[in-house]
């Protein structure tokens, strides 16, 4: 009976739960799904992480290659994040070139890296004007069950903290490049930005860490990226207008979540053996 | 890419002598600047200019059809080159903003398209795009739940805030925040940010932007009344 009710009137079904301040998956309104983090799971990549946020699964791998730096920024390397939402993760995606959502997510990741300044691009330089590292950050969604943005950020930051690059020497005279895979230097990541997403249900109820079903019923969404006590980004693309109190509440929760999540990353990094 | 701005001597003197900018740059609008569209406007805020046109409610592509409401489409054309992922993100933010603003349930199974052409970006381009789109929707007489007004605030390294920043203010600033307000309760509809900031800075920016949004709504009113007087 419950199944039919959910199919026929999904919104009413949700409302019945929310009246009792609980969600269909037994969560409180402000409760996150269990977060599972596995860092360094891909041995062939320079850095990697697997994140599970409830059912949502994101795999992140970082591959490094060398390239000539830009002529106007000879002392900087490149970071190229890419989010892939393939038909593997959900029936709503089709094969072919990346859709709008994947492009927006990739752009969000690039913006996050730029504004949080967690990697100094000059650290990626090998020989000014001649050689720099390019970090290809590939984020692949394996299971799409809502709140992909938070899972992507967590995977991205964890994988970056796990990245180590081999030492490269350039022969001044011949220009030969020598790589020494035995000496690995960990990439310095100065901060740990964490994103927290909310949706607005029925124009007034805020739900944290939405599942895909909840996202479909949402009348608005907001994502806040916090790092330490600072805010890296507030991203509220349209939807229901929120009062100032609701916005403050969101910021409060985002700051709290950022502490918890960076602690989780720290603990997981300590527990893996190199 | 070279770009020039012609500055009059008296303007330059005024700029150098002025204190912290707490007013919007001068706005001008040209409603119905194009003829084949349902609504069109060319809006400039200072030297930043964009053209927005609106078609609709019109026929919708079958795969985008929604049975209970109109589909809002936004196309953003940059001044040079082809649209890049950053423009896709901007399109998405603008679309989501207007999906809330347009009374879409009045026109099920139809499309309302907004096309924005950036003509000159001299700072606060996002605000200019939102404001010109809103004016174009008013020009096309599309039913809306509320109007929207966007205001950009730049936070400088020294803690000073600049309302409606120019391109130079934006590059010097440590972060740039854009707020979009609705016309009913002046609540926050959209926020996009670029650069780190603290909670207090967000709050101060909000207060400043909200005050300025009132003058944007006033500007809409004046533009529309001017247009209606002209057509009599």
Automatic annotation (TrEMBL), chain A:
<keyword id="KW-0963">Cytoplasm</keyword>
<dbReference type="InterPro" id="IPR020568">
    <property type="entry name" value="Ribosomal_Su5_D2-typ_SF"/>
</dbReference>
<dbReference type="InterPro" id="IPR036345">
    <property type="entry name" value="ExoRNase_PH_dom2_sf"/>
</dbReference>
<dbReference type="GO" id="GO:0005730">
    <property type="term" value="C:nucleolus"/>
</dbReference>
<dbReference type="Pfam" id="PF03725">
    <property type="entry name" value="RNase_PH_C"/>
</dbReference>
<feature type="domain" description="Exoribonuclease phosphorolytic">
    <location>
        <begin position="193"/>
        <end position="256"/>
    </location>
</feature>
<dbReference type="InterPro" id="IPR001247">
    <property type="entry name" value="ExoRNase_PH_dom1"/>
</dbReference>
<dbReference type="InterPro" id="IPR027408">
    <property type="entry name" value="PNPase/RNase_PH_dom_sf"/>
</dbReference>
<dbReference type="Pfam" id="PF01138">
    <property type="entry name" value="RNase_PH"/>
</dbReference>
<dbReference type="GO" id="GO:0071038">
    <property type="term" value="P:TRAMP-dependent tRNA surveillance pathway"/>
</dbReference>
<keyword id="KW-0539">Nucleus</keyword>
<comment type="similarity">
    <text>Belongs to the RNase PH family.</text>
</comment>
<dbReference type="InterPro" id="IPR015847">
    <property type="entry name" value="ExoRNase_PH_dom2"/>
</dbReference>
<dbReference type="GO" id="GO:0071028">
    <property type="term" value="P:nuclear mRNA surveillance"/>
</dbReference>
<dbReference type="GO" id="GO:0000467">
    <property type="term" value="P:exonucleolytic trimming to generate mature 3'-end of 5.8S rRNA from tricistronic rRNA transcript (SSU-rRNA, 5.8S rRNA, LSU-rRNA)"/>
</dbReference>
<dbReference type="InterPro" id="IPR050590">
    <property type="entry name" value="Exosome_comp_Rrp42_subfam"/>
</dbReference>
<keyword id="KW-0271">Exosome</keyword>
<dbReference type="GO" id="GO:0034475">
    <property type="term" value="P:U4 snRNA 3'-end processing"/>
</dbReference>
<keyword id="KW-0694">RNA-binding</keyword>
<dbReference type="GO" id="GO:0034473">
    <property type="term" value="P:U1 snRNA 3'-end processing"/>
</dbReference>
<dbReference type="InterPro" id="IPR033196">
    <property type="entry name" value="Rrp43"/>
</dbReference>
<feature type="domain" description="Exoribonuclease phosphorolytic">
    <location>
        <begin position="31"/>
        <end position="166"/>
    </location>
</feature>
Automatic annotation (TrEMBL), chain B:
<keyword id="KW-0698">rRNA processing</keyword>
<dbReference type="GO" id="GO:0003723">
    <property type="term" value="F:RNA binding"/>
</dbReference>
<dbReference type="GO" id="GO:0006364">
    <property type="term" value="P:rRNA processing"/>
</dbReference>
<dbReference type="GO" id="GO:0005730">
    <property type="term" value="C:nucleolus"/>
</dbReference>
<dbReference type="InterPro" id="IPR001247">
    <property type="entry name" value="ExoRNase_PH_dom1"/>
</dbReference>
<dbReference type="GO" id="GO:0000177">
    <property type="term" value="C:cytoplasmic exosome (RNase complex)"/>
</dbReference>
<dbReference type="Pfam" id="PF03725">
    <property type="entry name" value="RNase_PH_C"/>
</dbReference>
<feature type="domain" description="Exoribonuclease phosphorolytic">
    <location>
        <begin position="29"/>
        <end position="142"/>
    </location>
</feature>
<dbReference type="GO" id="GO:0034475">
    <property type="term" value="P:U4 snRNA 3'-end processing"/>
</dbReference>
<dbReference type="Pfam" id="PF01138">
    <property type="entry name" value="RNase_PH"/>
</dbReference>
<dbReference type="InterPro" id="IPR036345">
    <property type="entry name" value="ExoRNase_PH_dom2_sf"/>
</dbReference>
<comment type="similarity">
    <text>Belongs to the RNase PH family.</text>
</comment>
<feature type="domain" description="Exoribonuclease phosphorolytic">
    <location>
        <begin position="147"/>
        <end position="211"/>
    </location>
</feature>
<dbReference type="InterPro" id="IPR015847">
    <property type="entry name" value="ExoRNase_PH_dom2"/>
</dbReference>
<protein>
    <submittedName>
        <fullName>Uncharacterized protein</fullName>
    </submittedName>
</protein>
<dbReference type="InterPro" id="IPR020568">
    <property type="entry name" value="Ribosomal_Su5_D2-typ_SF"/>
</dbReference>
<dbReference type="GO" id="GO:0016075">
    <property type="term" value="P:rRNA catabolic process"/>
</dbReference>
<dbReference type="GO" id="GO:0071028">
    <property type="term" value="P:nuclear mRNA surveillance"/>
</dbReference>
<dbReference type="InterPro" id="IPR050080">
    <property type="entry name" value="RNase_PH"/>
</dbReference>
<dbReference type="GO" id="GO:0071051">
    <property type="term" value="P:poly(A)-dependent snoRNA 3'-end processing"/>
</dbReference>
<keyword id="KW-0539">Nucleus</keyword>
<keyword id="KW-0271">Exosome</keyword>
């Amino acid at each position: 009976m419950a199944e039919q009710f959910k199919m026929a009137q999904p919104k009413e079904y949700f409302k019945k739960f929310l009246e009792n301040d609980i969600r269909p998956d037994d969560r409180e309104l402000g409760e996150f799904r269990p977060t599972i983090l596995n860092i360094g799971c891909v041995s062939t990549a320079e850095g990697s992480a697997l994140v599970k946020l409830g059912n949502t699964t994101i795999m992140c791998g970082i591959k490094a290659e060398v390239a000539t730096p830009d002529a106007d920024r000879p002392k900087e390397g490149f970071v190229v994040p890419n989010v892939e939402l393939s038909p593997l993760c959900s029936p709503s995606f089709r094969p072919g070139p990346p859709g709008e959502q994947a492009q927006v997510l990739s752009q969000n990741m690039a913006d996050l890296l730029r504004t949080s300044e967690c990697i100094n691009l000059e650290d990626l330089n090998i020989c000014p004007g001649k050689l720099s590292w390019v970090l290809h950050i590939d984020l692949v969604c394996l299971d799409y069950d809502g709140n992909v943005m938070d899972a992507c950020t967590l995977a991205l930051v964890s994988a970056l903290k796990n990245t180590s690059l081999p030492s490269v020497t350039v022969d001044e005279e011949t220009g030969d490049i020598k790589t020494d895979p035995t000496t690995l230097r960990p990439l310095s990541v100065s901060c740990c930005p964490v994103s927290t997403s909310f949706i607005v249900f029925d124009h007034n109820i805020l739900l944290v860490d939405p599942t895909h079903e909840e996202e479909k019923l949402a009348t608005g969404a907001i994502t806040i990226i916090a790092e330490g006590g600072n805010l890296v980004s507030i991203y509220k693309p349209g939807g229901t207008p929120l009062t100032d109190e609701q916005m403050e509440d969101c910021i409060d929760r985002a700051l709290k979540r950022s502490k918890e999540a960076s602690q989780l990353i720290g603990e997981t990094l300590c527990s893996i053996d190199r | 890419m070279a770009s020039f701005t012609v500055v009059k001597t008296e303007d330059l003197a005024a700029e150098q002598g002025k204190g912290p900018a707490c007013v919007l740059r001068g706005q001008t609008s040209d409603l119905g600047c194009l003829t084949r569209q349902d609504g069109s406007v060319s809006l400039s805020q200072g030297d930043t200019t964009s053209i927005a046109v609106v078609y609709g409610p019109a026929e919708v592509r079958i795969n985008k059809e929604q049975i209970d409401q109109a589909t809002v489409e936004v196309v953003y054309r940059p001044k040079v080159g082809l649209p890049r992922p950053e423009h896709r993100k901007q399109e998405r933010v603008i679309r989501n903003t207007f999906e809330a603003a347009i009374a879409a349930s009045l026109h099920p199974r139809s499309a309302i398209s907004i096309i924005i052409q950036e003509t000159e970006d001299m700072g606060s381009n996002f605000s200019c795009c939102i404001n010109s789109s809103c004016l174009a929707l008013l020009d096309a007489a599309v039913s809306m739940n509320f109007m929207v007004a966007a205001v950009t605030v730049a936070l400088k390294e020294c803690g000073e805030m600049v309302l409606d920043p120019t391109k130079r203010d934006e590059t010097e600033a440590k972060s740039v925040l854009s707020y979009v307000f609705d016309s009913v309760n002046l609540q926050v509809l959209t926020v996009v940010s670029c650069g780190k900031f603290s909670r207090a800075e967000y709050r101060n920016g909000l207060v400043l932007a909200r005050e300025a949004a009132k003058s944007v709504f006033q500007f809409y009113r004046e533009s529309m009344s001017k247009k209606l007087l002209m057509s009599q």
